């Protein structure tokens, strides 16, 4: 019953992001804030990094989408994250959990468990993190994925079914599931793993796409396609950027330029989805 | 009685920044620290991001200028900001307030009100923020300006007269006033709004120029011209950079290169000031 | 008895970094986290910015090397730094102290003194900071070095002998000593000082090289050569990058590209070491 992601769906959702544009609140780690904001701006979305207690909640009510990334979860930010997730649920704002390095580190692992109970709209992570989150794996070595995306599909399915979340597993082939249907995107370039925040910024892009999902986010197929379209746009852009760059340094500006320039023709010509 | 900003004034002040160079202390948001420091270095100034309690005050006494930007005002930073502003006043160090997203978010709005009472040397913001700060508007949607710079001139004039501050309103035409005289700069490029920190870093550049203002900062015309010259250098650089770039990603390195290279000839040929 | 650093030693250690690769934990300032992580990735190492109490210690036991950089030492990070240094010592993980702006600022100066007693594997700083750390100088003006690297050699020797640390002093000629033998590297480019984090990221690279030092870090000559090789790779890369760039903005991506591409031939052709 699974029907793959079409270029038309990706183009339609990208066009919505560019025309609205969604306001994406990011509570993210100190390493990638700049890159994440610039990725959202290049995409055509509006970033806001409102992550302090007392503001994170009110902002999540106004935002179009929220990213909660556990990369460097300082105490104030942990409070703000719970505040934002609760407010997002209350206001119907879609939110994405990126459980960076969960499993091996105690503070973020406890926080991830707490956030999971708040039922994130989507979870984006690498295979090791998804398996750790589902209690099925031992966790990765820091931010490295030591497991294959496909290997984490049982864990992802379990998470999706238990928490009602879309689960997106990053890897050479990205696997995105709602617990019933599964989409796969085989775009991307290894240079994306040679740049910090390569995965983290995809979490923010996913929040932007969820904000414009079919069915206003209440429809599981709409949310699945939105998360997959985010991954498609992001990894397609990486391919286009890698084709014009000499290394990880020049890849970053080329990635942002390519994201701002991505066309329906690029999507139709390059998308490898199933 | 208003006389516009001349290329000679801009060149003279830029030359002073490059030869001193001023030490600019930045208490700024986590998203733009890196870009802001690199902008100051490309300009020829010396950045220092000293923003913890117990150090922010002592450093503000030694610094040539201080930027206080409210983008992500964590608790420790809020304490440090008040400490820095008080010490700056005490030592005669010029300081710039950038009230990011003030109006709609409670923590920074309360802090901005408190900082305002300390009479910032200059305030740099977009039109929505200036109007919110003056209590005349409802505030913007996060960091987006939803109002026109010229529309915020009454609010800016009120702030300038009440607090003795230079007020610089960013927009396609930048409007800078001391409450009596007003200067306008019509340089710049839309790419500056597609890069995070495009406005924030101008606050730091403004602090660098105030440090070399005519009259040692005690003269209102000297401060007005310094703030306007900062805006002119910054927006002229954006124009030069945009002419050689393919998108928001390549714009950032081109902007820094162009800032380091900006010549008196560029200023004479390109400045659009009134 | 001092024998200079050879290209073969540099190439051998670089090759080890690229093949292992070491996991480098960075507790560093908010300005340079992104650049530091990207430098480590371009080098071929694996960065992790785990810097919160409760996680910093456990992570330092697993990490291959740790960087503790005092650029913006917020309260939680200070706790995490002590936790990481103690755990690193306990587990035999090499760690690098970068005492940014020590001497003139009270909070970090007290912390640096405390960390020094924990006997860092290496200390990397500019001449002013080394002299301040040794109690021999007045400290610099923020992050600027106002003293010559060679002038700081007595202070570095004192620190090396007292704390058993390798001390690396950055400057046009970098001076690296274990308190008995001293190595000097005369590569590099002034553009490295026009980019924020130019020195800070070298601290992280030093941690990566110490993780692959001859003698597993227990041998003083092995550690000295590892720290010097880190400096050599870093400053050689700066030279190669500067040759292809127009200014400080384009220098950053070129630096990362050149670091990822650095060859044994480049090292043999360009290394200026004694």
UniProtKB/TrEMBL annotation, chains A, B, C:
Cofactor(s), by name: Mg(2+)
EC number, UniProt record: 2.7.1.50
First-tier enzyme category under EC: transferase
InterPro entries according to UniProt: Hyethyz_kinase (IPR000417), Ribokinase-like (IPR029056)
Catalyzed reactions per annotation: 5-(2-hydroxyethyl)-4-methylthiazole + ATP = 4-methyl-5-(2-phosphooxyethyl)-thiazole + ADP + H(+)
A Pfam short name: HK
Binding site for ATP: 124, 170
Positions contributing to substrate binding: 49, 197
Keywords from the UniProt entry: ATP-binding, Kinase, Magnesium, Metal-binding, Nucleotide-binding, Thiamine biosynthesis, Transferase
GO molecular function: hydroxyethylthiazole kinase activity
Keyword Kinase recorded: yes
Annotated pathway: Cofactor biosynthesis; thiamine diphosphate biosynthesis; 4-methyl-5-(2-phosphoethyl)-thiazole from 5-(2-hydroxyethyl)-4-methylthiazole: step 1/1
Cited function: Catalyzes the phosphorylation of the hydroxyl group of 4-methyl-5-beta-hydroxyethylthiazole (THZ).
Sequence similarity: Belongs to the Thz kinase family.
The protein, known as: Hydroxyethylthiazole kinase
Organism placement in taxonomy: Bacteria, Bacillati, Actinomycetota, Actinomycetes, Micrococcales
């Amino acid at each position: 019953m699974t029907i793959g992601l079409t270029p038309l769906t990706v183009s339609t959702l990208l066009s919505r992001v560019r025309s609205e544009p969604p306001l994406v609140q990011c509570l993210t780690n100190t390493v990638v804030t700049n890159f994440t904001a610039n990725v959202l701006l290049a995409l055509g979305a509006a970033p806001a990094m409102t992550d302090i207690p007392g503001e994170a909640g009110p902002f999540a009510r106004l935002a179009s989408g929220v990213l909660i990334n556990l990369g460097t979860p300082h105490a104030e930010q942990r409070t703000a994250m719970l505040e934002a997730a609760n407010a997002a649920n209350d206001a119907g704002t879609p939110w994405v959990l990126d459980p960076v390095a969960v499993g091996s580190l105690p503070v973020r692992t406890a926080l991830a468990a707490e956030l999971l109970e708040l039922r994130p709209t989507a979870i984006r992570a690498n295979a090791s993190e998804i398996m750790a989150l589902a209690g099925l794996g031992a966790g990765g070595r820091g931010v490295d994925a030591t497991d294959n995306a496909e290997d984490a599909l049982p864990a992802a399915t379990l998470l999706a079914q238990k928490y009602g979340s879309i689960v997106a597993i990053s890897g050479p082939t990205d696997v995105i599931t709602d617990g019933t249907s599964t989409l796969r995107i085989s775009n991307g370039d290894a240079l994306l793993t040679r740049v910090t925040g390569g995965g983290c910024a995809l979490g923010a892009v996913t929040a932007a796409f969820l904000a414009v999902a079919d069915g206003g986010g209440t429809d599981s197929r709409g949310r699945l396609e939105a998360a997959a379209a985010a991954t498609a746009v992001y990894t397609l852009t990486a391919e286009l950027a890698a084709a014009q760059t000499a290394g990880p340094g020049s890849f970053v500006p080329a990635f942002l330029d390519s994201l701002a320039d991505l066309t329906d023709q690029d999507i139709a010509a390059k998308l490898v989805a199933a």
